Amino acid sequence: MSNLLLLPGICLTSDIDSMLTHMNNARFLRELDFAKIDFYERTGLYKCIKRHGGSLVLGASTIRYRRFIKLFNKYLITTKVTYWDEQSIYMEHRFLTPSDNFINAIVLCRTRLTNCNAEDVVNELLVDYTGDDVENHKKEKPELSLELAKWIESNEISSTALRSN
């Protein structure tokens, strides 16, 4: 499974906000859905989840907007897996300006797997099958970054509060 995939886009007249100058905030999330589907298919993640008898659902996402994507400007969406645990795969998506690689928006997502173990799924995809000794060719699980740990904690606090209502 590749660690980083790029998906190109362009801000069109159907993407702009009511001020008619830049990409609507909701359009970022719509484009992100297409990028995630592309990632699931091109990496084999979705097929692997199905092979394990599972399914997936978006559990949480947070987007931070940094700069407008103006009408007719091109952008790239990068997608990479940043961490995983038994239940979920965590991804980071970036909306980049191709000319200077400026990060216009950054998104953290938790994809929750149901009826299968996310660790098993990701480990199967990360194995380099070109070697004879599979265990020695396995790629390492990334460290949990402080930013992601705090985001997970924030979501857990929210879930606990919602369960008490």
UniProtKB/TrEMBL annotation:
Coiled-coil annotated residue ranges, if any: none
Which InterPro entries is this protein grouped with? HotDog_dom_sf, THEM6_lcsJ_thioesterase
Q: Sorted alphabetically, which Pfam families does this protein's record hold?
A: 4HBT_2
Family membership, please give it.
Belongs to the THEM6 family.
Annotated protein name in UniProt: Protein THEM6
